[in-house]
Every structure is written in C-alpha cells, then in structure tokens.
Amino acid sequence: MPGISARHLSHEERRQLAVNLTRVVTLYRSILDAYIIEFFTDNLWGTLPCSWQEALDGLNPPQLATLLLGMPREGEVARYRSVWPLTLLALKSTAYALAFTRTPGFQTPSEFLENPSQSSRLTAPFRKHVRPKKQHEIRRLGEGHLSRFMSLGLGLTVKSIEGDQRLVERAQRLDQELLQTLEKEEKRNPKVVHTGPRHPPHHVVRWVDPTALCEELLLPLETSPQSGARLLLTGLHACGDLSVALLRHFSCCPEVVALASVGCCYMKLSDPGGYPLSQWVAGLPGCELPYRLREGACHALEEYAERLQKAGPSLRTHCYRAALETVIRCAQPELRRPGVQGIPRVHELKIEEYVQRGLQRVGLDPHLPLNVAVLRAHQAQENRVVAFFSLALLLAPLVETLILLDRLLYLQEQGFHAELLPIFSPELSPRNLVLVATKGPLGEAFSLLETEDS
C-alpha cells in the first residue's frame, strides 16, 4: 500500500499531517468504529452511501484487494468495471496519501530466498525456537529472543525486563541451552575466534509503569569509571503502555541516549495516559481514538490482502460470526459481542453447523430452533461483509499513523531528534514501523536501518 515517509516531513508538516488525520478519522469514524460481527444486527451495509454500495456490491475478493486496497498481484493492471463515485475514490486516495508507508527499502527479504523457514542471516543456534517472523525481526532490529541475540550474538551488555515470572524462567533456560550449543560448536571448530567471555542477558522480573520511572531498572550492569553510563532502550513490539513507558524513560533519564521502539497492541494503551502524548495532538478536535479504532489499527493489512487475492473459503469467517450474532441476540438480547473461542475448520462447516457450535461456545443451547433460510440469506451476503471489512482495513493505517505521529511529536516537543521508518517486511511483521530517537544527531546509525543488509 502506498504512503508517505515520516523522514521527508518537516516538523510543521508533521503537525499539519496530524490535523489532516484527525479530520479524516472523524469523517469516517462510523466505519472505523463498527464491529464486523454486527454487520447484520446493525445493518452496516445500509450505513454506506448508496453509490458506494453500488460500486462495491458484487466485487469478488481479488477485485477488492486490487481496486480498493491497492494491492494487485504482480504485473496485474487495475481495471474498474464501473465508474466509482468521487467520494469513494477520494477516500481511497486519502487513505494512501496520509498513512505512513509500511514498505521498507527492500522487496522480499533475501534471507529467506533459499529457505522460507530459516533466515540465512542467523546461524542455526540462534534460529532454534524462533519462528521465521521473529528471525527476521531480531536480525533487522538486532524480546527474549532479541535480548539473547544482542547479548550472545553481538556481545552487548543487555538487561531484559519482563513482567511474567514464567516467561523469564523459560528465557533463562533457553539462554543456557544456547550457551551450551555455542560452546560445543567452538570445541568442534577451534578456528572460531571469540573475542571474550559470553554473558547471557540479565533478566529482571518487573512490570514497567509508564507513569512512574524506576531508576533501578535502568542502572547498567557494568559502568566504566572513566565515563558515565550510555544506555539504549529498545522494545521489539512493546505492547500497549510499554511503548509509552519507553518514551517516558528516554525523555527523563539522562543515562538513556537512544531509543529504538516498535510498538503494538494499541488497544491496550491506557485511556487517558497512553494517547495522546504530544501537546499538539491533544489540542486537536477529534483526536480521540476509542478502543475499537485502536484495535483496528493492529490488523494485518498485507496479510488480509493476500487472503483476498487467494479468495479462499476462510474469508467467510466474518460472515458466519455476524450471522451467529443475530441468533445470540434473539436468544439473549443483553448478550452482545461475546467472545467465541476458535471453531476449527470453519470453512468446512455449513452455516447452521457453525451457529450451533458457536451457541455452545457462549453458553447457550446449541439446539435452539434456527431459521436456516435466514442464515443462508446472510451467507449470500458474504462478499458484502468482506467489502465492508476491507473498507475498515483501508482506513486502519490512518489510526496507526496518528498514534505514531503523536509519539514523534511528543519527542520533538521535548527537544529530541526522532524519526520513524519501516524496518521489517510487512508481510512477515505487520507492525513494522520503528521509532528511533537520540539526544543528539541521528546520524549514520539511523540510515543503516534503511537497507536490508545493515
């Protein structure tokens, strides 16, 4: 999906972008704020302008990926079967023009050309227990796995902070397992030269409070008597308020001279407190981003576009769940949007079978009498459900852009240098925009992140 680069914008242009984003988000809030499982109960299709309905109705999934999301297959030319209304074309152009680009400075990561499951840029010991997505991330940014690579792979002194004692214990076991593997490799290959003793990450079990700074957590493990501590804070997909905590620690702690943060789970941000952070965005009308909008900003746009191009049966899941919601509300009107645990192989079930299993999952009688004709009529609208969801996904990057732009502006208001750029392949890692900040010129370190082979 096209977009703009934050690096090419001046401070005033970033502020104006925030103004434009809040206006657009406010204008299309009804789409962003909608829950797709309420497609039938709330008549979401009927909320769209009639001209939009006419343009989108009947489009198959690959056409939605190409024409609406702007993600055609390689070599494919977009061909409209009808003249779209200017308002819909304006929405599409605006979504492209105002969102930060998620396309990095490389195409398919060369590290996976030989084997899609093994990054060629990590040796076998560092790939163990690590999925391809995480292999790509830790080598490009280079969390249990990231700290392990930085300490045992790069020889850095690393303090890793985690709130779950069980995860810390597992990370420590993996540290020792990797150490033993590396020692065995050195014995088998004595020509391997290692510059010094290997030290695993120092793990700390602690929740990081975004509103209360803890100097103890930031104390370095080793401090040279000749110079003060110089710390880098890094978070690979720091969830919710953890991203905010990193920014606040960076701003207030003199020992921290640099920050590299990739956020995620925006819906878990405290409200208020987690957003907005900057004075500029906080002063803009319509800057509010409720839970649903922040949740939508976490969807994997590129992955869904690929599913649309393949037009597989898994796309019917949203339609089935929306049909189930109508039955739930008829049976128990006060029960709205209950969580339904994953139902295996949805695409192989008839819609009435799915509804029966779904009723059981939410504690209702699975043998309730069903109007199969109505359910089949809902199923016939599957492409409409997919089209509405695609509209929401088209707009979702604008919400993520506003959240990350707010963080950029917050750091600039504190007098720091801050930039943002895509660092991971979005097909592998959808949350791929890294926020980099320093208390001096960004210089060469930042530009290295823009090339794949850094």
Task: Write up this protein.
- With 454 residues, the chain is of the alpha/beta class.
- The chain is built from 19 helices and six strands.
- The strands form two sheets. The protein has a four-stranded mixed beta sheet, sandwiched between helices.
- It starts with 10 loop residues before the first helix and ends in a 6-residue tail after the last helix.
The main sheet comes to: 4 strands, mixed
How confident is the prediction overall: mean pLDDT? 81
Strand order of the largest sheet: 3-4-6-5
Q: What order do the helices and strands follow?
A: HHHHHHHHEHEHEHEHHHHHHHEEH
State the shape: globular
The N- to C-terminal Cα distance equals 24 Å
Low-confidence stretches: 138-142, 443-454
Helix content: 40-55%
Q: Helical region count?
A: 19
Radius of gyration: 24 Å
How much of the polypeptide forms β-strand, as a percent range? Answer: 5-15%
Structural class: alpha/beta
Number of strand segments: 6
